[in-house]
Amino acid sequence: MGMREVFDRAKAENRAALIVYITAGDPTLAATVEIALALREAGADLVELGIPYSDPLADGPVIQAAGQRALAAGTTVAGVLQAAREIRERERVASPASPLSETERGSGLTPHPPLPARILPESAGERGRQGTGETPVPPAEEPGGTPGLPLLIMTCFNPILQFGPERFAQEAAAAGVSAVLVSDLPPEEAGEWREIAARHGLETVFLVTPVSDPERRALAMEASTGFVYVVSRAGTTGVRESLPEELPGLLERLRELTDRPLAVGFGISRPEHVAAVAQIADGAIVGSAVVRVIGERGAGDEMLKAVGDMVRELAEATRYSSATGNQHG
Fold first, then answer.
1. Does residue 20 belong to any structural domain of this protein?
2. Could you tell me if residue 212 is inside a domain?
3. Is residue 247 domain-resident?
4. What distances in angstroms separate CA 286 from CA 174, 223, 229, 265, 290, one per listed residue?
5. Biggest alpha carbon distance in the chain?
6. Staple partner for 187: which of 86, 125, 162, 220, CB 3.0–4.6 Å?
7. What is the domain-level CATH number for residue 106?
8. Domain range holding 276?
């Protein structure tokens, strides 16, 4: 599913899209697969898989700590791509003929077969088969033919550079990834990466911040083929008490420059934040609040249920106000 379709489907359901970020490999890559599937079941429209990096620029303390845990667990770029592939494969083998029971729906968990052993830190054998042209994993289908959970990879550029940009794009597309956001790559320096991504059918997403100058804003919106990630405030990611008062004005100015979907992130952590964003933007992005729960609970059913319960509340808050609807709609 393309990024535009994610937002169009949400709008058709009278709501904004809910995008959830998780750090891949925290606490393990096997757990990341389970978390992504639980997020889909709870109502997430799109999942961002963050590739952990030792020296991130925009991450707040919660996501930095998650990245350190993931790296300590042996997470690699190849492992994250394999986890994306596994999410796709698990969606495909889920039987639409077997609806969830009342208990399963209430838990926010989907029954799945055990993970194969290959969702582990990259082994020598896995390194040896990288770049061998594995068969692409087609998007999963929901009952009725609706494409399954879209995946976006969020990363700094250095992991892509070390992996090889062409190889990364090829293998991400083959794994079923829809889009890539390179958080520290300025749009004016992204020409080569954009060409590589387009060649492999990957959509690109760029950041626009409140302090971006007009020229960079225009470049970022032109370079974003998926959606525009609007940073709600200057600084790093993290849980905040309230949204900036200047956010509606920023979105209005951006809408004068693009017709691409605008999704707001950084500091979006509560249902009331999501509800407020839903009235003025096309999507709300939640990261640190979910990552914090994962860090506190660790792997297992208790964590999956806690994450599912949180995201279910956030998803409910994406509905447009019955009184005014979405103000830009």
1. yes
2. no
3. no
4. 27, 23, 12, 6, 7
5. 58
6. 220
7. 3.20.20.70
8. 3-127+134-205+269-316
Domains held by the chain: number: 1
Average pLDDT per run of 10 along the chain, which is 329 residues long?
Answer: 93 97 98 97 97 80 94 98 96 55 38 40 36 53 57 97 98 97 96 98 96 92 96 60 83 93 94 95 96 94 97 97 58
Asked if residue 298 is part of any domain, the answer here is: yes
Q: Which of 34, 45, 48, 91 is catalytic?
A: 48
Spatial separation of the C-alpha atoms in residues 273 and 286, rounded to whole Å: 10
- Show the 3-state SS of 51-90: CCCCCCCCCCHHHHHHHHHHHHCCCCHHHHHHHHHHHHHH
Considering the candidates 34, 41, 59, 86, report the single residue annotated as catalytic: 59
Is 48 in the active site?
Answer: yes
The two three-digit tokens of residue 218, written as one number: 């225009």
